[in-house]
Amino acid sequence: MLKILIPTLFLLPTTWLTSSKWLWPTALTQSMLIALGSITWLNNTTDTGWTALNSYIGTDPLSTPLLVLSCWLLPLMLLASQNHLSSEPINRQRMYITLLATLQLFLILAFGATEMIMFYVMFEATLIPTLLVITRWGNQTERLNAGTYFLFYTLAGSLPLLVALLMLQNNTGTLSLLIIPYAKPLLLMPFGSKIWWAACMIAFLVKMPLYGMHLWLPKAHVEAPVAGSMVLAAVLLKLGGYGMMRLMIVLDPLSKEMVYPFIVLALWGVIMTGSICLRQTDLKSLIAYSSVSHMGLVAGGILIQTPWGFTGALILMIAHGLASSALFCLANTNYERTHSRTMLLARGLQIALPLMTTWWFIASLANLALPPLPNLMGELMILTSLFNWSAWTLILTGIGTLITAAYSLYMFLMSQRGPLPQHMLALPPSYTREHLLMALHLIPLLLIILKPALLWGWFAC
Amino acid sequence: MADYREAPLATRPKTLDPNEYFNLSPDYRRAEAERAALRAGLKRQYQLQLNNPHRKELIEDPALNRWVYARANPYNHFKATKKTSLLGALFGVAPLFILYYVFKTDRVRSFNWMCAGLWVC
User: Fold this and answer.
1) Contact B68 A396 (CB under 8 A)
2) Chain A contact for B75, CB < 8 A?
3) How far apart, in whole angstroms, are the C-alpha atoms of residue A286 and residue A344?
4) Could you report the per-residue pLDDT of A234-262, keeping only the tens digit for each?
5) Which residues of B touch A342 (CB under 8 A)?
6) What are phi and psi of A176, to 5 degrees?
7) Which residue ranges run through the membrane (chain B) (predicted)?
8) By residue range, what is the domain housing residue B57?
């Protein structure tokens, strides 16, 4: 773990001490080496499950895919931001890289934490660099509103979590994830225990986000610069899912009754946000709502607490992280050329930028869960375990899958096919950097097809 | 060029009907001329921008900007009328209760079947 943490920590002096000519290549190389080093975490050899274990941090098959995803994302974020930051003063560029690196550090500590309070502190700590990135480097005036929504929705949701964790600590004496599965359950009065259950879950449900509490997400994703959108969509949403999966163990006998409203909200949210996607005019907003839709399915998979549900949720989280981040990068390539997110203005790009169309095509297919991509694998596992939970969910998830396919194809056809706007002149051709960025997103997604057992979490059988 | 004659039974639209345009008042014609001048000015501005050799960016369309802003900020102008309340209740509130009822009944029923030994897998 230290092999990865110390280089990440030292990315901060690196950005401030390198000369401006070598800033981006150095930061990129160092983060890429960290990412390649983090892949070694996928090798979980111990029988007890926890690898690289010390008093504070450890990895297990649940957290390793998410850790690798967050480490993999940092070089991609730097690649994506290089162009729009090139016109800024050098110290602002350094500050940006510093914020991304500290976010990475907090994310590694969050996913690797074995103590729930450490996870909570890191969960909250990731809000700060993201807030700074959204409000300081966003492009429109609405970024302040977006930052406020983002910060306060998540904070308001997670304050009850702190209280709940402290109650658990008081009762059980420990909050270590190694011990908690074996501790005796929390005995509270009936209504109090329901409130305690809700307090534990609400923070993560707001983060995921669940349909009723999702208003912060479209704003934050749309107003953030590309690296902010990427990390939000790919990793920060998954912090919510990961937290839920970890805490489900402690919440057990209560969950049978308490999950119903949230599963209903999650599944209805899949359909509602999918339908909203079909009516969006703003490209990033469409991708943001599709994130809510997929995360609703993940929330449904986690809340039913079956092995296949958890496995499907984990696979879908990773696959959606890569695919959604790829789509945001593609939307950014459009934005850098036309300075507008309106889909109508950036139509017919297949004629102008045919190679980028390949990446648009693969990313749209990933979003609509085409077999044999892992997106489909995760969705199918969640669908079948939800069907086992109650047969009627199939109607909702089936319609949801249909709408997902509809809006993914709509996004592809709107941006690539059709007539080019006639007044569009100077479209720079696709840079190699952009092709590299898309390749680094989508090639891992394609490679996961060959060994999905890496992502199966605890139930790799 | 062939001499254009319209089809014998075709009717002309109102604006091309010769009986109509000699009925127009001078005020109306003046207003029409002003509006045509405004339109021509806008078209000239667009053509100037379109053919400007130093232009690199897209031509900004203020109508498009207004439309996009309106589509992105519906809640600022939201009013709770009967129709919007009905739609909200129908799509936002009622499905939650209906689905809760459906899932709960189904699960309770299958649990009871399982307890009674009637559940055939």
Assistant:
1) no
2) no
3) 13
4) 999 999 999 999 998 888 777 788 899 99
5) 64, 68
6) -75, 135
7) 86-103
8) 1-78
